[in-house]
Specification:
Elements: E1 4-6, E2 12-14, E3 21-25, H1 30-42, E4 47-54, E5 57-65, E6 81-82, H2 88-100, H3 127-131, H4 146-149, H5 152-161, H6 178-191, H7 195-207, E7 211-213, H8 246-253, H9 259-262, H10 265-269, E8 277-279, H11 281-292, E9 296-297, E10 300-301, H12 305-311, E11 338-339, E12 353-356, E13 362-366, E14 371-377, H13 388-400
Antiparallel strand pairs: 1-2, 2-3, 3-5, 4-5, 4-14, 6-8, 7-8, 9-10, 11-12, 12-13, 13-14
Helix pairs in contact: 1-13, 2-6, 2-7, 2-12, 5-6
């Protein structure tokens, strides 16, 4: 890929061979542009976008490639894509907003807001346990189909009735699909709004961020088609172990999810707050920029600085019971997002934080550097986290700071 040409409207358009890369990148962050180009050239990118917000200003906003596997639709500025677990950051933001308003106590029992949840010995499970994947509810014990996952009332009723897999609060086990229904039901009980409606009214709407949990049918035309990842060496894609434990199977395969499922109308229009957020990279960067801006973005304050510090309050490092060695050893969650830690998943600052999505997407926030990044794509990679494309972009970002 060669350099950029000015399109005449303040946008920069890549003038080299296909696929073209479009958008804006300030000269200081040229390394991010180069890494983004290299993802297409060297890391089999199909269609993608990356955005960076620094001190409240969008300094990188790039997109390119194809929105479908057949390469018939170009990725556009407003192309939406399912970002899987990168959705969990905005959901956590909703919970922290309610806590910051004094409407939700993160140290209170979940049953204080959701009485039915006290069943099966869960009366002492705290709200902070939901946010930090320590509630012991990484998956349901009974078979749960994809159609049933899309049924909000049924899924939350089953979660309220089920028994934890481990003593809540003692260990972390990634709540891959249940996180959104657990935190989202608390948001609904406190606010009276579903998590999707709350996010739209209180967060993405005021920010003007093009991000929503689930999409309406009229937006299907701008949703990118996801492409299922190949199998990773050693089977990393499916589980972190050759013989997965019952809790791993419950978390990652009850129900099984795939690109084909996420491309279906049923998934797109459902409310699955752990995994079916749809947005642009620009919107992901803007939502995570609320954390990076210590609670505010472009004059819109959603959180106090103290609330942002609570988000990255570490809950103790441990080997995750679900993802285990697939994350390279012990990891640590804050209250809703993963801390970068000594491994630098979100850059060299161990107190930066963020969330990856299945297949490669990412949202990153570093309040100390005042920077946020959003990366979205449609050709899913096989890695549990730290996709090489994401790592290249994060490394390039920090090289420019």
């Amino acid at each position: 890929m060669s350099g950029y040409e000015d399109s005449g409207d303040g946008t920069q358009v890549h003038g080299g061979r296909e696929p073209q890369v479009h958008g804006h990148c300030e000269p200081r962050f040229a390394a991010v542009r180069r890494a983004f180009e290299e993802n297409f050239r060297e890391r089999q990118e199909l269609g993608a976008a990356v955005a960076v917000v620094r001190d409240g200003r969008t300094v990188v906003d790039l997109w390119g490639g194809w929105a479908d596997a057949a390469r018939t639709r170009a990725w556009e500025r407003d192309t939406l894509v399912n970002v899987w677990s990168t959705t969990k950051g905005p959901v956590a933001l909703c919970a922290h907003l309610l806590a910051d308003r004094g409407l939700l106590d993160l140290d209170a029992p979940v049953a204080a807001y959701w009485p039915e949840f006290a069943a099966a010995g869960k009366d002492k499970v705290l709200v902070r346990h939901l946010l930090s994947h320590r509630a012991g509810l990484a998956g349901l014990r009974e078979p749960h189909s994809l159609e049933q996952l899309c049924d909000w009332e049924l899924t939350t009723q089953r979660l309220a009735a089920t028994e934890p897999w481990w003593e809540p609060g003692t260990r972390s086990g990634y709540h891959a699909l249940t996180y959104g229904h657990l935190v989202g039901e608390v948001v609904r009980r406190v606010s009276g709004l579903s998590p999707a409606a709350f996010l739209e009214r209180e967060v993405s709407g005021p920010l003007g961020a093009d991000f929503r949990i689930g999409v309406v049918e009229k937006d299907f035309g701008r949703v990118a088609e996801l492409v299922q990842p190949p199998a990773a060496p050693g089977g990393e894609q499916a589980t972190a172990s050759a013989q997965p434990s019952p809790v791993v199977l419950a978390a990652l395969a009850n129900p099984p999810v795939s690109a084909a499922a996420a491309n279906s109308p049923g998934w797109r229009t459902a409310e699955i707050p752990a995994a079916n957020g749809h947005g642009t990279a620009r919107a992901v960067a803007e939502l995570y920029a609320v954390f990076a801006g210590r609670g505010a973005l472009r004059g819109v304050r959603l959180l106090s600085p103290e609330a942002v510090e609570r988000v990255r309050e570490g809950q103790g490092p441990c080997l995750d019971l679900v993802l285990g060695a697939g994350l390279g050893g012990e990891t640590e969650t804050g209250l809703g997002l993963w801390l970068s830690g000594p491994g630098g998943s979100y850059g060299p600052n161990p107190r930066a934080f963020g969330h990856d999505g299945y297949g490669g997407s990412c949202g990153l926030a570093d309040p100390d550097a005042g920077v946020a990044l959003g990366y979205v794509m449609n050709r899913m990679g096989p890695h549990i986290a730290d996709d090489p494309r994401k790592k290249a972009l994060v490394g390039a970002l920090y090289s420019a700071l």
